[in-house]
């Protein structure tokens, strides 16, 4: 690494001499500026910080706080990692994506797993100590089906530990070393890393013990479909099976993430690893340590993203926020007066970019917490104060993002009739026929769908739909928003472009 840095340094010096001082130093006339140079910044660029010549000081500081986690699994647990908590059976996932969603840390090195007796099969992962009295953080999927857990410290001691609590939705678990004493520990970072920052990962890949790798933060806010609150850091430090639950450090020796998943066609590292951000881990761990479980705030709305077309239909400048499909009866949102068509733009002053972000934000708050929701209704801004409830444990979530046809650009190419006249009952306008070659069919509008309202106004006959569309055109809208109920009873918003002729 030193040799590489020196070569880069020499190359940089040579380039600097040629560009900055070459002409003046050798008495030459500067050449004419090439045309493409005009695209470069007009002011000097501050030189980036050089990577450290060695990570040894960081490793010496934090390595004693990193542990290997060894688990004896229950007899009824799976023989492989195709059954991943929160993901279901990965055999149902397309082959090209299956390895992406597999977690690493369970089972031995690929291709070398020895036969195990029933009830005594094992798994290995990583973890790190966060307090002097021996609390340890790891992944939920490492210890989820554990019969017993042991941690091996950097000094070689292997100690029994117990599971204090675990959270499948974020894949975080908290352990406690049984033996009393004072243990070396590491601390969480106080701020999120930037894309391009150097990071160091330490863990137990393939059961080899404390292995160190380094790389940079490649991206933030990754949603890989692992759970409802995905917000992963992507790093390119080499990570493999067994690193699961291990820490990623910044150059100051602070934990910035917990290594959780890899994208790999073979099960080995290809430079795509994902870590749970430290702020998420710390919030979960605090609850696990206090209560042994995680309870999340609950708003009680179903929401969907605000697409460009929906933003046009609502008269918004930008496609941001979470569009309320409806508020569940009796929920905090309903009690606060939130309605279908509202766009939630911020929570306690923090902007909300999309429906997924609203879900994470609300779930990160405790039940009973009062929050101020800034929202837009019929072009007017308002604020609602909501006291959060408790997220139900039956699998419902505080908000969701509808992807099945929602947010496309469906256009009128439909035959319509009053829903009550065709036996569908209730209010609304039924879709009787869809032109199979038209854009509406391509965007998921189907026979049997019912249009409930257009531009926030309830409709009961086709002429109501036409009237609202003409009103939107007269107001200069590029699109009009319709709320549609499917034959299965699910409702969603669709934005219909007004620049297209009606069919």
Automatic annotation (TrEMBL):
EC number: 3.4.21.107
Alphabetic keyword roster: Hydrolase, Periplasm, Protease, Repeat, Serine protease, Signal, Stress response
Enzyme class: hydrolase
Subcellular location, record wording: Periplasm
Keyword Repeat annotated: yes
Chain sites annotated for binding substrate: 141, 171, 242-244
Main location: periplasm
Entries under PANTHER family matching the protein: PERIPLASMIC SERINE ENDOPROTEASE DEGP-LIKE-RELATED (PTHR22939:SF130), SERINE PROTEASE FAMILY S1C HTRA-RELATED (PTHR22939)
Protein name as it appears in the record: Probable periplasmic serine endoprotease DegP-like
Highest classification ranks of the organism: Bacteria, Pseudomonadati, Pseudomonadota, Alphaproteobacteria, Hyphomicrobiales
């Amino acid at each position: 690494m030193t040799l590489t840095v020196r070569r880069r340094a020499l190359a940089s010096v040579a380039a600097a001499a040629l560009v900055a001082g070459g002409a003046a130093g050798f008495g030459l006339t500067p050449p004419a500026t090439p045309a493409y140079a005009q695209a470069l910044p007009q002011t000097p660029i501050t030189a980036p910080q050089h990577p450290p010549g060695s990570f040894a000081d960081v490793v010496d500081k934090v390595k004693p706080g990193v542990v290997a986690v060894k688990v004896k699994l229950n007899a009824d647990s799976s023989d492989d990692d195709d059954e991943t908590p929160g993901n279901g059976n990965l055999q149902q996932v397309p082959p090209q994506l299956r390895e992406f969603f597999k977690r690493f840390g369970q089972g031995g090195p690929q291709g070398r797993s020895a036969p195990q007796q029933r009830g005594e099969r094992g798994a290995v992962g990583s973890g790190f100590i966060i307090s002097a009295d021996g609390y340890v953080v790891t992944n939920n999927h490492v210890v989820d089906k554990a019969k017993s857990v042991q941690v091996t410290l950097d000094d070689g001691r292997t100690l029994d530990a117990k599971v204090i609590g675990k959270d499948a939705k974020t894949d975080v678990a908290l352990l406690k070393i049984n033996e009393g004493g004072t243990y070396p520990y590491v601390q969480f970072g106080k701020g999120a890393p930037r894309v391009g920052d150097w990071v160091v990962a330490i863990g137990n890949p393939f059961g080899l013990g404390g292995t160190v790798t380094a790389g940079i933060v490649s991206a933030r806010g990754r949603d890989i479909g692992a759970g409802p609150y995905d917000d992963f850091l992507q790093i390119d430090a080499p990570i493999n099976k067994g690193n699961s639950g291990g820490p990623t450090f910044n150059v100051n020796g602070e934990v910035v993430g917990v290594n959780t998943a890899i994208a790999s066609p073979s099960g080995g590292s290809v430079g795509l690893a994902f870590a749970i951000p430290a702020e998420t881990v710390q919030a979960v761990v605090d609850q696990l340590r206090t209560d042994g479980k995680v309870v999340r705030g609950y708003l009680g709305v179903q929401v969907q993203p605000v697409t460009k077309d929906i933003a046009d239909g609502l008269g918004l400048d930008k496609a941001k926020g979470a569009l309320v499909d409806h508020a569940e009866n009796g929920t905090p949102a309903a009690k606060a007066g939130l309605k279908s068509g509202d766009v939630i733009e911020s929570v306690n002053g923090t902007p909300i970019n999309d429906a997924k972000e609203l879900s994470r934000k609300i779930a990160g708050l405790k039940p009973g917490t009062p929050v101020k929701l800034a929202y837009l209704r019929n072009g007017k801004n308002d604020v609602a104060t909501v006291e959060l409830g408790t997220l139900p444990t039956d699998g419902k979530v505080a908000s969701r993002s509808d992807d099945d046809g929602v947010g496309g650009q469906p256009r009128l190419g439909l035959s319509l009739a009053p829903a009550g006249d065709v036996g569908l009952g209730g209010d609304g306008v039924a879709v009787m026929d869809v032109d199979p070659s038209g854009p509406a069919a391509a965007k998921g509008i189907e026979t049997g769908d019912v249009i409930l309202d257009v531009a926030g106004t309830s409709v009961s006959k086709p002429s109501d739909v036409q009237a609202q569309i003409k009103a939107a055109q007269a107001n200069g809208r590029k699109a009009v928003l319709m709320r549609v109920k499917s034959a299965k009873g699910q409702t969603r918003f669709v934005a219909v472009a007004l620049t297209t002729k009606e069919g």
